[in-house]
Amino acid sequence: MKEITKKKQRDTFLGRLKANKELLLLSTPGAIWFFLFAYLPLFGILVAFKKYRITGDGFFYNLFTSETVGYENFKFLFSSGDAWIIVRNTVLYNAVFVVLGVAIPVVLALLLNEIKNKGMMKIYQSSMFLPYFLSWVVVSYCVFAFLNPEKGYFNAIIQQFGGNPVSWYAEKSYWPFIIIFMSQWKGMGYNTVVYLASICGIDNTYYEAAVLDGAAKWQQIKYITLPLLKPVITILLIMAVGGIFKADFGLFFQLPRDSGPLYPVTNVLDTYIFRALKTNGEIGMSSAAALFQSTVGFILIMIANKIVSKVDNENALF
Fold first, then answer.
1. Is the entire prediction scored with pTM above 0.85?
2. Among 68, 175, 240, 276, which residue has the least CB neighbours within 10 Å?
3. DSSP secondary structure string, the chain?
4. pLDDT per residue as tens digits for the range 217-230
């Protein structure tokens, strides 16, 4: 009986492989890529628990000969007097980015979808998407042209109206707004395209039926577009929550030009780790910080997905 059961299971498994061989073949390059660049490097997690020293004899030799220090590398994140500041900045900025990263692109996608001239829609779409491809180094120089304390465009306007020039890179009160604005300016095009593609995939018969029933444009958006966008919004929101302990290094390091007076509002986990690595050269500490960020992100994704599955199981990530 056991042999018959195993044979049935094997036949069923082989049958599934045969039935889905095209899909498996198409997914093979992606699986290989993930194995080589996502799963195989996980072996390096051990560096977070080592006092890693480079002797020139190769990574594995250095790894196994370096002193094991347990959780000592994780302590530096919270032993500094700036620990509260960097965690606060990281979480609060990312919380704002998560909310605005959903609200603004959805509104822009709805507006673009209402443009009847497809040529103009493509121009607007490309114009919003272009900043996404610019590096923060390039963007930082563009911002510097506006905020240069001596010859900046903004100070020139202020002086034109009789005001005093502002030392932008020494006044920390302005930078939370500058960082949030520039982050949305650079990233909103990508998210808008994602939502716009989802809107374009909605069956037009829904809208035709709504028009026959006398539904206004706002009613069509409220009762057709937004409900059908809900699965995409939910998935992107869950993924964004998972990255709430990670910060865009270029945004917080390049944009304020690593200005010391701005550290209270621009110093986040990623910049703190970089400066600590540059100062003391402890690779183990930076690895511990990255592992901490990834672990917290994974836990947050699981929690967010669990909450969504309780509210609406169909829109959960898994």
1. no
2. 68
3. -HHHHHHHHHHHHHHHHHHTHHHHHHHHHHHHHHIIIIIGGGGGGGGGGEE----SS-HHHHHHHSEE-TTHHHHHHHHSTTHHHHHHHHHHHHHHHHHHHHHHHHHHHHHHHT-S-HHHHHHHHHHHHGGGGS-HHHHHHHHHHHH-TTT-HHHHHHHHTT-----TTT-GGGHHHHHHHHHHHHHHHHHHHHHHHHHHTS-HHHHHHHHHTT--HHHHIIIIIHHHHHHHHHHHHHHHHHTTT---HHHHHTTTTT-GGGHHHH--HHHHHHHHHHHH--HHHHHHHHHHHHHHHHHHHHHHHHHHHHH-GGGS--
4. 889 888 899 988 98
Identify the pLDDT of residue 8.
52
Strands 67-68 and 50-51: antiparallel
> So what's the pLDDT on residue 288?
85
Residue type, 12: T
Residue 214: the pLDDT is 86
Those residues of the chain that have pLDDT short of 70 are 1-11, 13
Quickly count: other Cβ atoms within 10 Å of residue 81's Cβ.
6
